[in-house]
């Protein structure tokens, strides 16, 4: 009889723990949020005959950035030690959707912000201000916060400007010193 009572107490304790765990998960679920990022790009005129005003306006108009790779990290300031939570790639309409984010502070970076580089050692690049580069590296493209116990729908837009020159052109505080591209 005492064995049955002990078994009953252990079973009840186990069920209580399972129920408390499920309740805890349910409370977290209530706080989940959805993030939608619209990723666009603009371009500049790259040599040749003088374009019409309509052509220049068209280049300056944001378009969906299809296949752009971005990275989700937790925190507010970018550094190489913070692990990547998720690699994100924009869809055909230039958007990224992240459902069910847990409460916390997050940020988004691109490939240029993944690793620090010594730009001064790159061929055809002149560093104009190293402190400026360091500040740029630490600043994410987007910071956002998912609040506890509030279901949020967060919408943001990130625009990239594509330069005529490839490579490090998106990094501020450096100057391309190489030959002009044809």
Can you walk me through this structure?
With 182 residues, the chain is an alpha+beta fold. The protein has two domains: 1-30; 32-117 and 140-171, Immunoglobulin-like (Sandwich). It is 25% helix and 33% strand. It is built from three helices and ten strands; from the N terminus they run αβαββββββαβββ. Strands 1, 2, 5 and 9 form a four-stranded mixed β-sheet that branches. It is elongated. It starts with a helix and ends in a 6-residue tail after the last strand. 10% of the residues are buried. Mean pLDDT is 81; it is low at 18-31.
Report the radius of gyration as a whole number of Å: 25 Å
The CATH class of the largest domain is identified as Mainly Beta
Low-confidence stretches: 18-31
The overall pLDDT average reads: 81
Give a count of the beta strands, DSSP E runs of length 2 or more.
Answer: 10
In short:
With 182 residues, the protein is an alpha+beta fold. It has helices at residues 2-30, 53-60, 130-138, and strands spanning 33-43, 63-64, 69-74, 84-89, 95-101, 104-110, 125-127, 142-146, 153-162, 174-176.
Helix and strand arrangement:
Blueprint: H1 2-30, E1 33-43, H2 53-60, E2 63-64, E3 69-74, E4 84-89, E5 95-101, E6 104-110, E7 125-127, H3 130-138, E8 142-146, E9 153-162, E10 174-176
Parallel strand pairs: 1-9
Antiparallel strand pairs: 1-2, 1-5, 3-4, 3-6, 6-8, 7-10
Please supply descriptive tags for the structure shown above.
182 residues, alpha+beta, Immunoglobulin-like, 4-stranded mixed sheet, 3 helices
């Amino acid at each position: 009889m005492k064995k049955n009572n002990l078994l009953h107490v252990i079973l009840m304790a186990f069920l209580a723990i399972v129920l408390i765990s499920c309740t805890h998960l349910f409370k977290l679920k209530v706080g989940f949020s959805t993030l939608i990022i619209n990723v666009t790009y603009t371009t500049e005129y790259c040599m040749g005959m003088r374009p019409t005003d309509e052509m220049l306006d068209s280049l300056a108009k944001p378009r969906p950035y299809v296949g752009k790779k971005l990275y989700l990290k937790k925190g507010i300031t970018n550094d190489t030690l913070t692990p990547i939570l998720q690699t994100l790639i924009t869809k055909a309409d230039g958007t990224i959707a992240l459902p069910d984010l847990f409460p916390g502070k997050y940020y988004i970076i691109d490939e240029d912000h993944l690793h620090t580089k010594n730009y001064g050692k790159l061929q055809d690049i002149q560093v104009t201000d190293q402190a400026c580069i360091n500040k740029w590296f630490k600043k994410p493209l987007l910071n956002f916060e998912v609040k506890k116990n509030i279901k949020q729908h967060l919408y943001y837009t990130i625009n990239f400007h594509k330069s005529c020159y490839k490579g490090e052109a998106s990094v501020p505080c450096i100057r391309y010193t190489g030959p002009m591209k044809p």
